[in-house]
Cytochrome c oxidase, cbb3-type, subunit III
Amino acid sequence: MSALLVLLPFLALAAPPGDPVAGREKADTERCLECHGSTGDGQGFSTGSDGKFARLGGQQYDYIVKQIQDFRSGQRKHEFMKMMATGISDADLADIAAYFAALPAMPAGAAPKNTTAQQLYQHGDAARQLPACTSCHGDSGKGIAGVAPVIGGQGKAYLEQQLQDWRSGSRNNSAGGVMNQFAKPLSTTEIEALARYVSEM
Ligand code: HEC
Ligand code: HEC
């Protein structure tokens, strides 16, 4: 009995508790797919330069769960997503998050090299105490489990909006306020260039 209790946290780490097959059904009936797309490549309305919905295919399980909890609590503010987030149970959330997390990685392009955005992403800017984005979001923006989400291949319009929201403080749900701190010194031109670079990397 006690041995089992000790083991449980490790089992939880090994595999997300949700069921991706049930999650596919629930993401459909709960309408998530209408905006967030149904497959890893198509991504529904999340594609294209106008896409303001986040791509969820290939995103980290824990990150998806945290965002839904933050929408529910109001820690991350968005009226429509608050309604969607409070409309699903924790069990549904586990399955839906497992479904999206199991989809292939977000589509990558071939971002242009040697740009200001690449320089910022890879090396940051010591003069402004800006750390390299790679240090948390990983090479090619593939994310680092337990540290920061996947951003590489995410939609450009969505990325740009989020960076503006971190900068203005209207989004402030990152632990320790790190993303607000890093977005603050960025110019609007840098945000646009970073969003383009990250979406194509
Ligand atoms: C009518 C469109 C719409 C529907 C339906 C919808 N969403 Fe969203 N979702 C959005 C928008 C818009 C955002 C971006 C919010 C913002 O700008 O902060 C978002 C953001 C998210 C995020 C955060 C993504 C990230 O990268 O941080 C998650 C997770 C999410 N939605 C999950 C869901 C789930 C699960 C469902 C179904 C229960 C759902 N959404 C239904 C429009 C929608
Ligand atoms: C110290 C670690 C750290 C560094 C460095 C960092 N980030 Fe983040 N970033 C995070 C974390 C953690 C989150 C998720 C916060 C949350 O829970 O909502 C995040 C979220 C984001 C998001 C929102 C993703 C989504 O799906 O909504 C974007 C965009 C982003 N970061 C871009 C950047 C860029 C560009 C840089 C470099 C200028 C950068 N980050 C540097 C930790 C970091």
Notes: DSSP finds eleven helices and no strands in the chain. The mean pLDDT is 87.
